[in-house]
Amino acid sequence: MDLRVAAYAVVTDGDGRVLLAHWNEGHRSAWTLPGGGLEPGEDPEVAARREVREETGYRVALDALLGIHSRVIPASQRIHADTPQPMHALRIIYRAHVVGGRLTHEIGGSTDRAEWFPLSAIPALHHVKLVDVGLRMAGLVPATTVGLHP
């Protein structure tokens, strides 16, 4: 089984909007929390700040560690069909706010754009379950809210 450790951020602004990145890899795409995999030896907090900057153009300060989400992805659901084994994904999720930069879109990465969304618009977006998990951890949606997204 492969192991992937990644760090993500729930970034909000003064207008109650949430910053999301549009993940577009292989034949799959959906809105997600900005973030991604740790580089070897990288501190998770550094990784979260780096990934948000790469995917959105913003520099952020981390406010709190919200939690860790653990998920095993069966081999049949992995992005690359030639991968014969499942992957254990450990997702470290932080709460963060913007301290600088400006909205820019990542070029050549796993995301192709970023946008701010009102919290009320997120249920209608095609988004990954990690968005729902992060919003629940941040206390932005009720703990009983269940996402129906991949």
Automatic annotation (TrEMBL):
Pfam families registered for this protein in UniProt: NUDIX
One of the record's GO molecular function terms: hydrolase activity
Family matches, as Gene3D superfamilies: Nucleoside Triphosphate Pyrophosphohydrolase
InterPro entries per record: Nudix_hydrolase, NUDIX_hydrolase-like_dom_sf, NUDIX_hydrolase_CS, NUDIX_hydrolase_dom
Source organism per UniProt: Microbacterium telephonicum
Keyword Plastid among UniProt keywords: no
Keywords annotated in UniProt: Hydrolase
Cofactor(s) required for function per UniProt: Mg(2+)
Family per similarity comment: Belongs to the Nudix hydrolase family.
Protein known as: ADP-ribose pyrophosphatase YjhB (NUDIX family)
PANTHER family, alphabetized: GDP-MANNOSE MANNOSYL HYDROLASE, MUTT_NUDIX FAMILY PROTEIN
Ranges of residues in domain Nudix hydrolase: 2-139
SUPFAM superfamilies hit by this protein: Nudix
Annotated signal sequence range: none
